Write a sequence for this structure.
């Protein structure tokens, strides 16, 4: 396969996710929800109804789009690249870019699922102050959400750490393919792909990294690595989104990292109700008014249908 400029794709299946994973509708639809789950979701409607809501989402929301998450009940162990490793170790940086080159091809074909669509529907009805997402996949925007804070950045932009120029990820993909002809074909059977487009690729030693087209400096995907701080203005915007809401709805996040947990703590301190929909425990459970252990897409779809107009 060549770069997109001359790439010959098979007919794209809009329900095809990463590495053969299929995007899914809510498992079994809303009719498959158990009575106990419906009771929990009805309790959420009582808590959230009649007021504007801030929504915080994590990787668990995108699993139905075929993107494996970091810490779900069935997740494989991951060892994400840190910012310090990326900038300080050329071998690790080359390995990352090789794996990202393969992972990007898969991640960019992922489609929004019913959960993303439900969030967009709630926003369009005026029920939300907006969405704070820890995901870099841009699926909220693809589903039609307009007020989205991409807390950790996005996978479809690349920045230069020397001159601060920004480039579309697709443009860098073209450069990488020209520098590494045939690499995608050789590594087309990549296994697992992480939410940040880090593909399971081992043959990375000879991969040629692309320099910044503007200054020749070091390029980096424009999302926040472990060990790197979220930009202050982005955090401030997210706090305002929570402050403008009367409650906080968390969907598909284990809240393991402070970048997301801080908003739960902030809402709790302000005595705003916090509802968490997630499979398994989260680090923010002690601050929640209600915990709902149900599929994220199913839960959001139910809420979108049952929450009353303001």
């Amino acid at each position: 396969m060549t770069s997109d400029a001359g790439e010959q794709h098979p007919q794209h299946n809009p329900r095809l996710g990463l590495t053969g994973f299929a995007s899914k509708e809510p498992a079994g639809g809303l009719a498959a929800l158990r009575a106990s789950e419906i009771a929990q979701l009805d309790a959420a409607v009582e808590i959230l109804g009649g007021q504007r809501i801030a929504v915080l989402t994590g990787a668990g929301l995108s699993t139905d789009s075929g993107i494996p998450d970091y810490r779900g009940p069935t997740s494989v162990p991951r060892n994400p690249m840190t910012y310090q490793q990326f900038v300080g170790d050329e071998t690790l940086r080359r390995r990352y870019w090789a794996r990202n080159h393969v992972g990007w091809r898969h991640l960019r074909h992922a489609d929004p699922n019913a959960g993303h669509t439900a969030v967009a529907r709630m926003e369009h009805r005026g029920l939300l102050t907006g969405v704070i997402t820890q995901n870099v996949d841009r699926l909220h925007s693809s589903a039609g959400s307009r007020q989205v804070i991409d807390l950790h950045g996005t996978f479809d932009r690349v920045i230069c750490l020397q001159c601060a120029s920004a480039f579309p990820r697709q443009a860098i993909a073209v450069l990488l393919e020209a520098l590494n002809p045939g690499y995608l074909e050789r590594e087309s059977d990549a296994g697992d792909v992480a939410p940040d487009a880090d593909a399971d690729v081992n043959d990375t030693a000879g991969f040629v990294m692309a320099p910044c087209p503007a200054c020749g400096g070091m390029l980096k995907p424009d999302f926040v690595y472990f060990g790197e701080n979220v930009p202050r203005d982005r955090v401030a915007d997210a706090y305002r989104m929570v402050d403008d809401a009367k409650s906080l709805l968390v969907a598909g996040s284990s809240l393991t990292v402070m970048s997301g947990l801080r908003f739960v703590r902030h809402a709790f301190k302000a005595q705003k109700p916090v509802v968490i929909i997630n499979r398994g425990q989260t680090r923010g459970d002690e601050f929640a008014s209600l915990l709902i252990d149900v599929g994220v897409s199913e839960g959001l779809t139910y809420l979108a249908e049952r929450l009353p107009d303001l």
User: Anything to note?
Assistant: Residues 91 and 304 are 47 Å apart (CA to CA). Confidence is low (pLDDT under 50) at residues 1-28, 72-77. The first helix runs from residue 35 to 48.
